[in-house]
């Protein structure tokens, strides 16, 4: 006769434990769960006491899972994913899809195409989440992501190349007329180089001027390509970008190519999704639409 789950710890304690295993920080887990840091610490102490095991080592600035804690974390996470999948099967939301993209991809590639997406898929409630980090798909409700880099992006994830990274330099036509052709080395030194998070200027200068060592003096640094491009449009210098992010600016004349050459980088923009998507039909539809936009 089944006596029920007599050894099961309180589910709330397990939920807190799962959050802490991802952040390895009581404060960040508390912020996610909407409770106090003290409440999180109390739940973990209570769970460790009931199990008779130490799950975390308390380090000066962070936490570390013990061997027992690491194994338990994998099983608890799988259990919550099963519960999550079972609950969604009872009340599916086939027309909701959350797409995680980087801020630059969102503003420079996705936003101009959203009217076409809405026209093609009026029944899909698309939620665009702009974030630099690769999200936790199941726990953050994300169905599909676009990320820059090289696969693999993580266990249990599929990655499909959206477009390869070719790098071009762009400048405002007014600044180009004022400072002259940057392909002339002395003219190039007059321009400010607008950096982004990819740090490609040293390689690009070596690519353009292979026989010269460039000790460039003028730099402006941004953490996102989109910000560097806005600075270029306003005439502050030369920015590096994927051609896909400046199609409208080149067509309208807000930006022009600073050099004729484009540099190929061993990385690209990839569509990333779990191998077992929650809303398979909707994910496939959006994936195919994104691929068709590139082609």
UniProtKB/TrEMBL annotation:
Residue stretches making up the HTH lysR-type domain: 9-66
Superkingdom of source: Bacteria
PROSITE patterns: HTH_LYSR
Signal peptide stretch: none
UniProt GO BP: DNA-templated transcription
InterPro entries: LysR-type_TF_proteobact-type (IPR058163), LysR_HTH_N (IPR000847), LysR_subst-bd (IPR005119), WH-like_DNA-bd_sf (IPR036388), WH_DNA-bd_sf (IPR036390)
Pfam families per UniProt: HTH_1, LysR_substrate
Gene Ontology molecular function terms on file: DNA-binding transcription factor activity; sequence-specific DNA binding
Alphabetical UniProt keywords: DNA-binding, Transcription, Transcription regulation
Family: Belongs to the LysR transcriptional regulatory family.
Protein name: LysR family transcriptional regulator
Source organism of the structure: Pantoea rodasii
């Amino acid at each position: 006769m089944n006596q029920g789950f007599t050894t099961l710890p309180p589910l709330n304690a397990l939920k807190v434990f799962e959050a802490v295993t991802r952040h390895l920080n009581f404060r960040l887990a508390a912020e996610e769960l909407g409770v106090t840091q003290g409440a999180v610490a109390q739940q973990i102490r209570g769970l460790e006491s009931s199990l008779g095991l130490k799950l975390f080592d308390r380090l000066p600035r962070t936490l570390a899972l013990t061997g027992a804690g690491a194994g338990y974390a994998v099983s608890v996470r799988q259990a919550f994913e099963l519960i999550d999948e079972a609950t969604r099967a009872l009340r599916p939301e086939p027309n909701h899809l959350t797409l995680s993209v980087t801020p630059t991809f969102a503003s420079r590639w996705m936003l101009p195409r959203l009217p076409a997406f809405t026209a093609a898929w009026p029944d899909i409630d698309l939620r665009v989440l702009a974030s630099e980090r690769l999200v936790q798909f199941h726990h953050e409700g994300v169905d599909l992501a676009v990320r820059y880099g090289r696969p693999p992006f993580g266990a249990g994830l599929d990655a499909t190349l959206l477009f390869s990274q070719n790098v071009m330099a762009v400048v405002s036509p007014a600044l180009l007329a004022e400072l002259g052709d940057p392909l002339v080395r002395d003219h190039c030194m007059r321009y400010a180089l607008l950096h982004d998070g990819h740090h490609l200027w040293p390689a690009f200068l070596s690519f353009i001027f292979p026989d010269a060592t460039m000790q460039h003096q003028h730099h402006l640094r941004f953490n996102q390509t989109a910000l560097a491009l806005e600075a270029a449009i306003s005439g502050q210098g030369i920015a590096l970008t994927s051609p896909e992010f400046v199609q409208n600016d080149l067509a309208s004349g807000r930006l022009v190519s600073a050099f004729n050459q484009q540099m190929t980088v061993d990385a690209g923009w990839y569509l990333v999704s779990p191998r077992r998507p929650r809303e398979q039909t909707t994910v496939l539809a959006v994936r195919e639409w994104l691929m068709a936009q590139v082609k």
